[in-house]
Write a structure and sequence with these properties.
globular, five-stranded antiparallel β-sheet, 445 residues, Neuraminidase
């Protein structure tokens, strides 16, 4: 059983309902590689940093808040950036993700929410249309704003096995589907006939579908799922280990059986918990919109979209309970439920109030080589307000965030990390039904 600590957060700035301006908070995260059952909390004074002993994905480490009087302390620690548009003539509609395939440094793959995947050759930046890698618009349900083809990832050994994994919305019944596809013999398109459904999860409502699918540094496949939608988590999925909703799952797609297209890793946290879905890696998450592994520390970062007042950035740990729907960020959720702090919830490492944004987009820690000054900066955005922030995580010390791009007409739907560690952004421009665009993050010389 998980112990029930009391969590003492450290605030960069006031975070009550009437506060204005930046209301970021952060906390200390002391991580030891140990069994899930050994989760404990060190006793701390409210003026100190909370220390949570948890089991991270791979490497042990400590994320420590750098003390500061407010969120703008020493902003030079996160230098300015510039955004440079790429493929300026390209006609895109709701580009929702951009990735690269292993072994293809010249190509970008762009996911359009309606159900297309385009391949773009970076040596020809002036193209007006991309090569269609997949068109499954007839199979994808993109009727509602948060449904559609939501995520793609290539198998780490794609160059050899040709496997691609897609996460999308379907109907009859309304559900989320995780499928494996195989690239065609010409390596130019995905073979629609090769689809193998790995997982199907019924969705009670059209919103809060998650979803990011990606491989971890351990070779396991991770997928984020939302709480099922509507408002207030009406079915209580956030704190229910019997459902995959409101969780991040971890499965092994390299080990299949005649009865299942995946197996459960033996070190998943709930394999011995009666009634729990054994796929679950972490839970209590409202709607994780984009997550990523830091190449250097192996930590899993996630942006969890809030409801009424707060957006949050989390570092995801094995067996972690992130509090939804008892908490929103560091705060008791407004539904008025009791006992919010009686469970060992894992605090967000950053939060901001709805004065500063309404829909977080999780990003990446920059590990590229072109801009040394950006190394170790975790970039994230707010989709609704078009803002981009950066917070430096260096030697596992998390610094105060800095607003790098102020409110804009760009709705930042996703960050993408290229093979060389450089970062690319997807945007819906001028509104959700406007044209889409792609942008590279660059340092300012």
């Amino acid at each position: 059983m998980q112990s029930k600590p009391q969590i003492s957060p450290v605030h960069f700035a006031p975070t009550n309902k009437t506060s204005r301006g930046h209301t970021f908070v952060a906390l200390a995260l002391f991580a030891l590689v140990q069994a899930f059952t050994a989760i404990t909390l060190a006793q701390t004074d409210t003026t100190q940093l909370a220390q949570i002993s948890v089991a991270p994905i791979i490497a042990p480490g400590t994320v420590v808040v750098e003390k500061s009087p407010n969120a703008q302390q020493d902003p030079a620690r996160v230098p300015a950036i510039q955004l440079v548009r790429i493929f300026p003539n390209l006609a895109l509609r709701r580009p929702i993700q951009v990735v690269q395939a292993p072994g293809e440094p010249n190509n970008l793959y762009v996911v359009e929410q309606a159900g297309r995947i385009l391949r773009l050759d970076q040596s020809n930046d002036q193209v007006k249309s991309g090569e269609v890698f997949l068109d499954m618009r007839k199979q994808v349900n993109s009727t509602n704003n948060e449904e559609g083809l939501l995520s793609i990832c290539f198998h780490p050994k794609y160059a050899d096995n040709g496997f691609v994994y897609l996460y999308y919305s379907a109907t009859q019944p309304r559900r989320s589907v995780l499928s494996q596809f195989h690239v065609g013999a010409d390596r130019k398109t995905l073979d629609m006939e090769s689809e193998k459904k790995i997982l199907e999860v019924e969705q009670p409502y059209p919103n809060h579908n998650g979803g990011t699918v990606l491989f971890g540094p351990d070779g396991m496949l991770y997928l984020s799922l939302g709480d099922g939608g509507a408002a207030n988590d009406p079915h209580g999925n956030g704190q229910n280990l019997a459902t995959l909703l409101a969780s991040i799952i971890r499965i092994d797609v390299s080990q299949v059986t005649k009865d299942s297209p995946y197996t459960i890793p033996s070190d998943n946290p709930f394999v011995a918990t009666k009634g729990a879905r054994k796929e679950i890696w972490a839970y209590g998450l409202r709607n994780v919109w984009r997550m990523s592994f830091d190449r250097e520390t192996k930590l899993l970062w996630a942006g969890d979209v809030g409801q009424d007042q707060f957006e949050e950035i989390d570092v995801i740990v094995k067996g972690g309970n992130y509090g939804w729907n008892m908490r929103e960020g560091l705060h008791a959720f407004s539904s008025g439920q009791k006992g919010e702090f009686g469970t060992a919830y894992i605090d967000p490492v950053l939060e901001y109030s709805h004065n500063d944004g309404v829909s977080v987009t999780g990003g990446y820690v920059y590990r590229g080589e072109k801009y040394a000054e950006l190394k170790g900066v975790y970039f994230f955005a707010d989709y609704g307000y078009g803002i981009i922030w950066g917070a430096r995580c260096q030697n596992l010390k998390l610094g105060a965030p800095r607003k790098l791009i102020h409110r804009s007409a760009h709705l930042w739907s996703s960050f993408g990390e290229m093979l060389d560690g450089e970062l690319v952004l997807c945007s819906f421009d001028g509104g959700e039904r406007g044209p889409g665009s792609l942008w590279k993050i660059q340092g300012v010389k």
